[in-house]
Amino acid sequence: MLGYTIRRIGAALFVLWAISVLVFLIFFATPGVDPAARIAGRNADPATLEQVRRSFGFDAPITTQYLKMMNHLFLERDLTSFVNRGSRVVPQITDALPATLSLVIGAAVIWMAVGIAMGTAAAAWRGKAADPVITLLGILGVSMPVYWLGEVINLFTQSRMHETVFRWVPPLGYVAPTENPWQWFLHLIFPWLSLAVLYAGIYARLLRGELIGALREDYVRTARAKGISERRILVRHALRCSLIPVVSLFGLDFGALVGGAGLLTEVVFGIPGIGHLTYNALQNLDLPVIMGTVMYAAFFVVLANAAVDLFYARLDPRVRHV
Amino acid sequence: MSEPLFEVTDLQVSFRGRSGPVNAVNGLSYTVMPGQVLGVVGESGSGKSVSSMGLLGLIRDRGATVTGSARFQGRELIGMPDRELRSVRGREIAMVFQDPMTSLTPVYTVGWHIAEQIRAHESISKKAARHRAIELLAEVGIPDPARRVDAYPHEFSGGMRQRAVIAMALACDPALLIADEPTTALDVTTQAQILDLMLRLRETHGSSIMVITHDMGVVSEIADRVLVMYGGRAVEAGTCREVFHTPHHPYTRGLLASVPRIGGEKLHRLPTIPGAPIASSERPTGCAFAPRCAERHDACTMQPLLTGDGHLSACWLTAPEVPA
Amino acid sequence: MTGDVLLKATDVVKNFPVRGGAAGRRGPVVHAVDGVSLEVRRGETLGVVGESGCGKSTLGRCLVRLGEVTSGRIEFEGQDITRLSRRRLRPVRPGLQMVFQDPYTSLNPRRTVGEIVAEPLLVHRRGTHAEIRATVADILDRVGLTAEQADRYPHEFSGGMRQRVGIARSLALEPRLIVADEPVSALDVSIQAQVLNLFADLQEQLGLTYLFVAHDLGVVRRVSNRIAVMYLGRVVELGPADRVYSTPAHPYTQALLSAVPRIDDGTPAQTPTRERIVLSGDVPNPIDLPSGCTFHPRCPFARDNCRTERPPLSVDATGRQVACHYPLG
Q1: Most B-contacting residue of C260, C287, C299 (CB-CB within 10 A), to test interface
Q2: Is domain A96-319 annotated with CATH 3.30.70.20?
Q3: Which of A303, B236, B238, C178 lies at a C-alpha separation of 20 to 30 Å from C249?
Q4: Which chain B residues are Cβ-neighbours of C189 within 8 angstroms?
Q5: Do the Cβ atoms of A241 and B154 come within 8 Å?
Q6: How far is the C-alpha of C106 from the C-alpha of C167, rounded, in Å?
Q7: CA C70, C298, B179 angle in degrees (round to 5)?
Q8: One CATH from 3.10.180.10, 3.40.640.10, 3.40.1440.10, 3.40.50.300 for C5-263+273-322
Q9: What is the pLDDT of residues B70-116, one digit of tens each?
């Protein structure tokens, strides 16, 4: 087990390193791309370019540049932005984290509750009228892009019906829960819902399929022969086994979202989270910030993978003793 | 003669097929006496498994209909509300299925499964249920039951798992144990252990047993009475001795002859029954075995009834009066 | 009826790495086949029996080179085929064919029966299309299928018919040896007998040699001239079928035979002569084999040296081989 853990950590570190090299190369070594030219602006004269190059250290060999950047990002933790010089990257990320966590945790609670309820109901009522209705709702949720749904929600809550039904909806943005919990909740309710709609549909469909498979299993027949209720068979036997793949998918999705995959939702609703930070950095090609957010995102995805592996063993006793 | 424990009369199980209903079981009748072991033999498609599943409401296909009569200890099972039937299942009539590898929910311990069975029908504490589970595991010959009660199904071998499933089935002291191919997935030496166990438990628990299998050797070893099924009907019934020593029906004779034995003369060619077991959708009117029967004649276009004195057979050759 | 040695296996070992072990590293292994030596003679049927996990199927696959052996030597028609590359094996392949247990999963559902049987002929470029068509028709006829059935798909057939297709495919390249792995165990009893008879007929007509792997002792006795009994990856007894069944020499063989349920049909041959020996416990873990004779933990006759010394497979006066320190008289 110890050897396995060490190997897992080693592999994770390797993945993080490979991602950092890849991102670095994309921005610094792609032929025809000169970061100095980007920073200096269009039609900059050669002297300015040379000055920028020296000032940002672009004249050093590429490996030195990479090592310096890694040193500032991880060891000195004082990497600064190219665009707003003097603004440090690491604090920017830690400042953005609470907003992202608020968004993702809230949405996750909603989509897991709704997804499991919908998937279970669809499987329990399989072949009846409710099943295709639930399935259709799920597909509808999956097929609405977050940015479109978010904009439509904003259209109604912020302008069209703002004076009537949605008078209580605060303007776009984010309020820390430590500052005002009620306002925190009101600001996030629509972002949560629009993010959850997508995932609830996916999870409901996945769970329905798993459950229908589980209900055909021999162990469900055994459970029926024992004379226990259909409700208990569904929940304690079929659902319990069907949740195993759902939970592992959840871990991966959650990790990716905390890592910044909720970018579109954050941008549409003006939430200053990691996704928003990444979005701005990409717009300005602010390489240190991009590097910082990408490394942070990769870290969460790798962490989520490890967490899923560990939790999987709790859920499924069969993998415990391998 | 005492009252039968279980009396099935004219059981029909049909499914909705592409072109009209398909009868998987087509007028099956049998009785199980208290303490008796009834062996039901047949090949695939004979309806041997479907019949017992249908009686206990275990067929969830909504296109399936079950008609006829099944009296168990004086109560009629067919048409019984699901809630009431559930109190019979597991408590009065327990079932053991073929594959012990897949018949237990993988995420729960063996002890949990047995405790669930007990607590479904009796209001006892979790602790008491666990205690009973350990006793039951000891009774079916699981070594170190106090420790193994917390083991997961995948930590047991096939034979041990089938023992655990049997322990679970016996947890509520059922009057009837229906075992559907209980040893088919097991090796011969394990099969011998399980058959011994079932016979021993019949003595100690006084349960009647219905063994459904394709293996006539298993029936011969364990059963008091035999029911041979073909095409959704019983074609022959009698004591083990009657059916295996002097088989009446051509199908029983053909089946017995085609089993390769481990003793006796080694035949150059095995006698065979031509053709394949018939699918329930393409069963002819009249005797279902007629298309494969070497002794068929004009009368076989009509359905022969299961008749006889104790040793019953559904064949015009043995019928008391051949229709004109 | 039996002639020269067609296939010879010497000390064949096949280990599988245990799941979870890193590839390329020395981890625990499953000893699936643990030093098997046997000869298959031209024209005979050698039956291999044993319970699940005894390595009988793995052995069968190794002998036709469907898996790499860990060590040992396999000779087919005098040629060492143990380490032949895929390309060098190609000319040998037609002589060695295999029939599998599940006729459904081993047949391509998108091909017609005729195409399935023709495939090996096309791969090995045996003649023109017209010639291949004629050969296929001939083979289908041999296994009891009509030319009209050649245009149907496997799912349109019953289990017994599908197994006939599987046999037909294995016959296409005119093999000398067919390894049949549980070929009738998925079939109904009445169909089983038909397929077993087909095996016997084909052997007679084509002079085939079979290695017949099965768990059903009745089936194996029916088809085999000689029988090898396997336990935990080793052959514990090998000899003429009648002698092995009437007077088993290894305690495991005896226990196995006594465990088979008999149909008491009133004839003396079917009434068990000896009391049933019910073996206690389960087959041990093939990762961590017992020392000495691997059967000793379950053997009713085990003595001290059975725990420490591995009994060799020794030949008695009648040519029967037994791996036991104290064979039954």
Answers
A1: C260
A2: no
A3: C178
A4: 43, 214, 216, 255, 258-259
A5: no
A6: 11
A7: 100
A8: 3.40.50.300
A9: 999 989 999 899 899 999 999 999 999 988 888 999 999 999 999 99
